[in-house]
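Appendix B. Extra example for self-study. Work through it before the problem class; the solution is given directly after the inputs so you can check yourself.
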Amino acid sequence: MSEINLSKRALSLEPSLTLQISAKAKELVSEGRDICNLSAGEPDFDAPKTVIDATSQAIFGGYTKYGPASGDLDLRKAIAKKLQIQNNLNLEFENVMITNGAKQAIYNLFQVLLNDGDEVLIPAPYWLSYPQMVRLAGGKPIFVNSSAEDGFKINIQDLKAKISSRTKFIIINTPNNPTGRVMSKEELLQVAELVRENKNINILSDEIYELILKKDFQHFSLATLASDLQERIFIVNGFAKGWAMTGWRVGYLVGPKHIIKASSALQSQSTSNVCSFVQRGALEALKINHEFFEEINHQYDQRRDLLYEGLKNIKGIFIHKPNGAFYAFPRLPDSSITSVEFCTRILNKYGLVLIPGKVFGDDQCFRISCANSKEKIIDGLTRLQNAINNFY
Ligand SMILES: Cc1ncc(COP(=O)(O)O)c(C=O)c1O
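Solution. C-alpha cells for the complete assembly:
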C-alpha cells in the first residue's frame, strides 16, 4: 500500500534535534544511567502561589467557558497598562492579544504578515523556532551571523548588507536565547536607524526573557527607544520564563490594531481562545511585586556566575559572559567535532545533556542552562571537563 504524502509545508519542517536528544536522555535514565540534564529551557522553580491560587479560584468561579479569541479583556487591559507605564508606550487594549505562549504570538504574526518569498532577517545564534515559523508562513529566513569573540554582537553592516527589496522583518531577541546576551541601548538604536531608513521593514521584538537579568543590567525595549517606529515594532512576550509559568501557555502579541484584529481572526479559526481560567492566573501574575523577581534573579546570578567561571576554566572552551536569561553558549575547541556529534557523545559517555549549537545556527557551540541547582551545575561542569580532556 502506498503511503500518504506529507504536504510541502510539513516536509519543510526540520525534525527537532532537541527532542531526539531528550528522548535519548530518557532512554538512558530508564536503563538506570546517572544523567545530569543541563538542557532545560524553563525555570526550575514553581509559579508564584498567588498565581496558582488565582487560577484555581478562577476554575471554581466559572472561568471555564469559551472566551474571546483575542483574550480575556481584563488581561489585555492590564498588559496595555503595563506597557504604558513600564515601557512608556502609547497604546490601548486593542493593541494587545493573548496567545498560547509567546510561540503562538510569533506564529500568528508571520502567518498574517508574510507572503511567499518575503524575507526575514534573523541574527544568529537565534531561538530555534524562528526559521521554522518563517518557512511555515511561506517566508525565507536570512541569517546574519555573529561570533563568540565579538560577544555575539549584531554587526550592523552585515545586517544592512542582507537587506533586499523582499525584506519584511528583522528579529530582535534580548535577553537572548541561546547566548544569554543583553543588547545595549546603542546597539538597539542602530537597528532602529536601519529600520527608519527602510520603510518596508518591521521588527519582531521578542522580550520573553525581559525579567531575567543579571544585577545592574537593564532591559531596553526597542519600541520604547524608538517611539516613532511603534507602528512597525511588534512586541512578543509572555509569562513562561519570568514567572515560571511555562505550562500555563500564556503569551501576548502587541502591534497596530488592524494587525491584532487579523491575528485574532486567525486564532478564532484555529485554536480559539487561550484557556480561560489560566488567563486569570496571568492577570494575578502582573500584580506580583519586584521583590519576587529580585529574589529569583539573585539565585540566577549565583548560578550563572558558577557556570561561567566553571566554563572559563575549561581549557579549549571559549565562553562569552552571559548577562541575562539562563543560558550560556560556549564554543568548542577549533577543529572540533560538530556540535551534534559532541552532544551525542557527551550524553552517551558522560551522561550530560546539552543542546547542540547547530539548532541555534552555530555548529561549533552548545547551549548549557543554569536553570538548575548549584550541585547539578557543578556535576555538569565536572562531566564536561572530563569529556573535553578525553575528546581533545
Ligand atoms: C526566545 C524565545 N522566544 C519565545 C519562546 C516561547 O515561549 P512560550 O513558552 O511562551 O511559548 C521561547 C521559549 O523557549 C524562547 O526561548
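Self-check: The domain at 66-285 is CATH 3.40.640.10 (Aspartate Aminotransferase; domain 2). If your reasoning did not lead you there, revisit section 3.
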